[in-house]
Write a structure and sequence with these properties.
alpha+beta, 2 domains, 3-stranded mixed β-sheet, two-stranded antiparallel ribbon, elongated
Length: 157
Amino acid sequence: MCLSATGQSLYDLSAVAMRERRGKGPRLPPGVTLGGDGSLRDEIPSSRPAQVASVVQRAIQERIVRGLSDPRLQGMVSVQEVLMSHDLLSARVKVSVLPADRGPLSLAALRNAVGFLRASMRESTSLRRVPELHFELISTPALHDSLSSTPRFEDQA
């Protein structure tokens, strides 16, 4: 008898898979999917969420650089990271703002501009579905301190 990683026999898992395909019975264990031929296979991680995250990050950063007409968006706002859900319908966008005291206001401006940002992404990218955007503020005191302590050279002309 052949057992899977979860300790169930493959025959039992195959029966579960067939019931799931019909919409009846229990769900498959996590990490196991049903192949096109009805056989069970382990899930292979997809690189698609990382690709879409890169496109979303670039599109949002370009729109911020071109400017939003919200006076609360002040300082240097940069998109640090975008984390996509596996279904590609939701994105957590992590931003940093310098100077740090302008962060909460800029975050509120970005949260208000979500609809506008999604519409501009719809026009500038080839994504079939534009994900919902959820902005988070990353505090960067170490980055701010390192930038402010960098020596500045003045022209001696």
